[in-house]
Amino acid sequence: MKRSQTMTTAVELFALQEIDLALDSATSRLAEIEEGLGETENLISARAVVDEKREQLSELKVLQSEFEASEEDIGAKASAVEEKLYSGTIANPKELSDYQAELKMFKDQIGRIDDDLLATLDEVDGAEADLAHVEAFLATMNRVWEEDQRKLKAEKAEVEPKIERLVAERESKSAGLDRGALSLYQTLREQRAGMAIATLERSMCGGCRITLPTSLVKKARAANELVQCVSCERMLVVV
Ligand SMILES: [Zn+2]
Hints:
Bound molecules: zinc ion
CATH topology of the largest domain: Helix Hairpins
Number of domains: 2
Structural class: mainly alpha
Oligomer: single chain
């Protein structure tokens, strides 16, 4: 086969493949970066835990103030009864013992509320400690996440123009190439994990490591035409 001016060489396709491989890796890295941008599941669930703990604490505080209010309320009632009892105005013994019974009832109630209040105060302490703990955890996680996002954004700002550069480079490199050769190249790239061109290593195909027939090795070295490996069908290049 006579070598024409327009004939595409394995060397040209090999150079194109270098660009395509760089483009593949930059594109998949960009996809990873985009996947990593935004809030993570861990961050969202840590924030949900903080919200839940905050809610628990505020419910306990509501309970605490309810106990305090009723303690105050019953305390006021007890004081009123006490005042009456010690005012010396009650002469009737029946009335006196009724008031005494009422006072005792109020004091018993206050005692019970006091127990509940103390238990609730304990729970408030525990809930406050819990909340502080998960808040600190969230803050740390948030710092790490922000740093991570900053890095990803910086990398994205580098990868995107790199891809643009490679696409432009690919366009200009492939512009002068033979259509048939390009189409074979594309097909092989799809079938052979992105590697359409393999280097000839002595008499071995660098793609599938098979030892090639001498005649094929000679043809590949002559580089007058595109030569494919007999086994993996990759085009062979001498570099
Ligand atoms: Zn091969």
